Amino acid sequence: MRQLDPDWPDEGKYYVDADLRKMPMFSHIPKRLYPPHGGIAKHWRDEPDRWKWIGWRQWHCDLYGLVSDQKFENGWIIGVLRVSQTRNAGEVIVLLNDDKWIPVQANSAPNCKAIPRAP
């Protein structure tokens, strides 16, 4: 399944679990699990039948505010990863529990930043 990165006119509400749980499609999530985060939540809201197969989010992690990985019941979604040093292009990687993976193109990607080194 290919999906373009969503537009973000109302981006804030897709990053707050309490706000997401108020949306009808996410109001019945078991307490030990969470709604999808960010762009995945927006796509799920717009096309629930196309996205509900991934299952509920088990946890997620943001890396330096640039890259996010989300663990779902049926796999991982990692990205946006920058694919070029010179072009503003990215890719999201979907790793499924059945050992399959899917690359998904994103219209933009975070800028490269130096990772702080441990002392």
Name a few traits of the molecule.
alpha+beta, 14% helix
Structural account:
It is a single chain. By secondary structure, this protein is of the alpha+beta class. It has one domain (11-106). It is 14% helix and 29% strand. The chain contains 3 helices and 5 strands; from the N terminus they run αααβββββ. It has helices spanning 17-21, 39-46, 48-51; strands spanning 57-63, 67-72, 75-82, 90-96, 101-106. A 5-stranded antiparallel β-sheet has the order 1-2-3-4-5, with no helix packed on it. The longest helix is centred in the middle third of the chain and has 8 residues, at 39-46. It is globular and about 45 Å long. The N and C termini lie far apart (43 Å). The relative contact order is 0.15. The model has no long low-confidence stretch (mean pLDDT 78).
